[in-house]
Amino acid sequence: xxxxxxxxxxxxxxxxxxxxxxxxxxxxxxxxxxxxxxxxxxxxxxxxxxxxxxxxxxxxxxxxxxxxxxxxxxxxxxxxxxxxxxxxxxxxxxxxxxxxxxxxxxxxxxxxxxxxxxxxxxxxxxxxxxxxxxxxxxxxxxxxxxxxxxxxxxxxxxxxxxxxxxxxxxxxxxxxxxxxxxxxxxxxxxxxxxxxxxxxxxxxxxxxxxxxxxxxxxxxxxxxxxxxxxxxxxxxxxxxxxxxxxxxxxxxxxxxxxxxxxxxxxxxxxxxxxxxxxxxxxxxxxxxxxxxxxxxxxxxxxxxxxxxxxxxxxxxxxxxxxxxxxxxxxxxxxxxxxxxxxxxxxxxxxxxxxxxxxxxxxxxxxxxxxxxxxxxxxxxxxxxxxxxxxxxxxxxxxxxxxxxxxxxxxxxxxxxxxxxxxxxxxxxxxxxxxxxxxxxxxxxxxxxxxxxxxxxxxxxxxxxxxxxxxxxxxxxxxxxxxxxxxxxxxxxxxxxxxxxxxxxxxxxxxxxxxxxxxxxxxxxxxxxxxxxxxxxxxxxxxxxxxxxxxxxxxxxxxxxxxxxxxxxxxxxxxxxxxxxxxxxxxxxxxxxxxxxxxxxxxxxxxxxxxxxxxxxxxxxxxxxxxxxxxxxxxxxxxxxxxxxxxxxxxxxxxxxxxxxxxxxxxxxxxxxxxxxxxxxxxxxxxxxxxxxxxxxxxxxxxxxxxxxxxxxxxxxxxxxxxxxxxxxxxxxxxxxxxxxxxxxxxxxxxxxxxxxxxxxxxxxxxxxxxxxxxxxxxxxxxxxxxxxxxxxxxxxxxxxxxxxxxxxxxxxxxxxxxxx
Length: 820
Prior knowledge:
It is a single chain. The chain has 27 helices and 32 strands. By secondary structure, it is α/β, with parallel strands linked by helices. Strands 3-4-7-8-10-13 form a six-stranded mixed sheet. It has a six-stranded mixed sheet with strand order 14-19-18-17-15-16, sandwiched between helices. α9 (165-181) packs across α10. The radius of gyration is 27 Å and the shape is globular. The two termini are 44 Å apart.
């Protein structure tokens, strides 16, 4: 949750500034140096963390961290344990919840919360902050002329569309550097929930409808962030796939769908990147809040996957709605602790009171409390704050701007390019720039996924900087219109409060004669269509997923006028998630899906449309012809329609392309799709064996057969026998991106299949099973554009992994299955 903190802080100035002078003083290098006395014992020097003049066991670095932490726990009172297990609150949150008691303002204003300090052990308070598109803290501070802006990186959908793990790690490193240099210990990111339905208001934060892409993308970003010595919190665990009534919605999901889709992404991220923390989600799964679920947090996460870090709740996770807090509502603290949810965030005094009573009465055992405390202390011991790292408050924002510009460029997807409309690099001919969003560019979505960056480069600025000759009359008309609409939108959201959702900015009304005049003087038209959404609400079909009437009219008029003069029309999509494209895509010559590409977005678009960079992004989700074509459409956001309490995932594993391709539903643009300014040929596919034995290697040659350099995303789909259990027609199991291939250059790509890639979860056997029989490997440029195939066999059934049953159903329903 962690709502728009800048708004909260504005509303609650007192909370923001209380004790800030002392906090800033404590953060200064001079003070830190004075506050770090040492003790010398046997010729070795140790930090006297609690300044008591003697070497305590937990200060003795000759001992293992384990022993040092155990020594602290032995001395802790129940009250101290409670103070560590429940967060320190969140300044300004009272705007949302009503009075909830004191909140400590940490050293970093605008951060989302943290853990408590304990002077007698020398344990400092640690700091956690949002979010998925970059660090979100307050950009300015009272009585301080310095600024604390962070970099707004591309949103999740844009990052995932790069399919480039190396690049994603670089983005993570840049994010992690800002986290560390601004004094934060954990970034509450990445967010990797499955895009079950295109209307989810937070899909912009998430990566894909496919768990492999989601998990691998998250792992790369986590590895990048954590390489800087700070932590991450992957979220929201699990099946958190809508914003409507998100604190209370009960998701009914089969165990197979949970394990194959909604847990598999988290499993990949946990095993391949070891995030410091996992954030449990708001929702219930089969009647149980995820933060209360021992099945999820202990059995799956810890016992099956070997997760060693801490689990924290989402902000007020397990509470029956924000409004309940005003009337004294509270999460089930006992269940949360016993389930293995170590840290309750942001933490309020009422929770502490209940937990202390539970510890005193034995409802929460000392064993459980000590285990949870131990995990939190293990986390604290890893933090820069514990190491007394002297952060600079000066990350290299210029260098990171370059990182975000390159990442955004590589994540852009060329959806259409008739007659080589793009690249357009003619700087002498005039360009008409239409659409309010061209001038009021959307950096990213709202809520905890937003960033307080200094400036966003609009498309107008990007094209100007690249040397394009823009129609001045249009610029002079649109600029004040855009400024007025942006100001109005800000006021509207301010009036509605911190849960206000963004709305589409209205387009300018122009007549036919005006468009005709522009078609005469301009060589090409660029038209931007914008969409925004945010935390706390889902999108709608009319005027959001579908184009508004005024947008259709604008496109029709521009296309008619420009085509009549033999001129081209290019649509730039500045959007966070999927919109309808089928009804209008034939009216234009090229479509560039720019996503919400972060603060350098205008430069990134200019890099692609000019041909400076060849687009190489591919879709990580399906663009349907109609919203209703999605299998989940009839079960979203749930029932009753006016105030959903329950949502049934009746489509089972048939989410996204698994549904479209298996059931023969034609998409507008399929999963994995994306064009290039060059062409690629695939050849010479081979496996290292015709039978599967523990793992299988698939090699394929990819050649650039066009005229410009470019990168190709090579996708491996697997088609399994499906005799004992219904299976999707094919599923993505591996992928790789080529290097930048020069014209005529080839590269051999090697992709590996492991036993679990072949397996499905068979509920009756409580196991991941790979059936005996023939498997078909399909390698290509998208889920429908298969270039090379090869087969191998599994001689006998493989039981890949036996597990315990989890999350028993609380209502009966049958998962969707294809007819045989």
